[in-house]
């Protein structure tokens, strides 16, 4: 009897292996120093969309990072003399765990409650233990008010503390944008091949602050965004002039069309004036009475 061979891999397993082989991950320096740490991939809810996302968590180092994946096709890079294809790039960036805990505090903002009753995910109870571990990595007083009643510790969401916690983050991001000379003009083309002009580089302080606000607000609920925008003293975002011009142009087209179709004015009919005959013209007309036209002499005879 012939020896039993290994069971061939299914097509899905082969594709999965190739997928992992062609996956390229970009890590921050803080996550590359100690390779022996206990990092693991976990799933948590995104603070803005509430959808599950992949995060890199280390209980030992007390770090949390988000993994964002971008699919690529027909891409590759050189490593020495080797050409390595890329099917996917994962960007890993450090995240303050307090951003992920903030939606749970807002949900229970009506009253003081114990922490284990605030950090509760009704649909995914397996996250509750992980959320409690994340709370140990942060200063909860940044977003909540603490109250002690005997041995019981209660917490309640504090919007003023949250805004004061977010404001330095906005200023820090804006400072990096200024230092790196990032073009924050709304209608500017972003590319390393374009040379920035002086007017693009020296943007106003409000433009840098608003651009930093847009970056931080990706981790905030819409209600907090409005409060933070008002706290920073930034005006509300209005529609661009181009969009308004396009809308006005469409309205003008409709008005013009309706006017031509329904309000058309009748054409003015001018009176035909017959010129007066002179004495010479009258004499020639009288002499031609009774005569035949010259074309009548060329007609066929019957």
TrEMBL record:
GO-annotated biological processes:
RNA catabolic process
Q: Name one GO cellular component term.
A: nucleoplasm
- Disordered: where is this region? 1-21
Q: Which InterPro entries match?
A: RNase_H2_suB, RNase_H2_suB_wHTH
Q: Pfam families from the xrefs? A: RNase_H2-Ydr279
Q: Domain named Ribonuclease H2 subunit B wHTH: which ranges?
A: 99-228
Q: Family per UniProt? A: Belongs to the RNase H2 subunit B family.
Q: How does it assemble?
A: The RNase H2 complex is a heterotrimer composed of the catalytic subunit RNASEH2A and the non-catalytic subunits RNASEH2B and RNASEH2C.
* Protein name as annotated: Ribonuclease H2 subunit B
